[in-house]
Design brief:
Helix content: over 70%
Number of helices: 4
Number of domains: 3
Structural class: mainly alpha
Largest sheet: none
Strand content: under 5%
Number of strands: 0
Radius of gyration: 25 Å
Order of helices and strands: HHHH
């Protein structure tokens, strides 16, 4: 009888733990993708007609590329160009920053 009760309690504990774990990840992963997609679509649909033309798409991408270049230019030399070595250094710094941020999150008890 004691073994049966112990088995039932152990099973219930395992089930409760698994349920709590699943609920945590469900909440964390739950994103309103429709809302995100609609917001992104509206950002690209410059004239707001409910359609994205090739001109709108290319203009959107050009804007993104310009912002990206501005970030890259921060690590460029005085010549206004980015060498392979400069790009490698920027990438390394970016990865180190990302790694540090992840470490801090883990230290604070946030697993993702």
């Amino acid at each position: 009888m004691k073994k049966t009760l112990l088995s039932v309690l152990a099973g219930a504990g395992a089930l409760a733990t698994a349920s709590a774990f699943a609920e945590h990840h469900e909440k964390k992963d739950k994103v309103d993708w429709d809302a995100k997609l609609e917001a992104h679509f509206a950002e690209v649909d410059a004239n707001g007609d409910g359609n994205i033309s090739s001109e709108e798409f290319l203009a959107y991408k050009a804007g993104k590329a310009e912002k990206h270049w501005e970030k890259m230019a921060e690590g460029a030399g005085d010549d206004g160009m980015v060498s392979l070595e400069e790009m490698k250094a920027m990438h390394k710094a970016k990865m180190e920053k990302k790694k540090k941020k992840k470490k801090e999150k883990m230290k604070d008890g946030d697993d993702g």
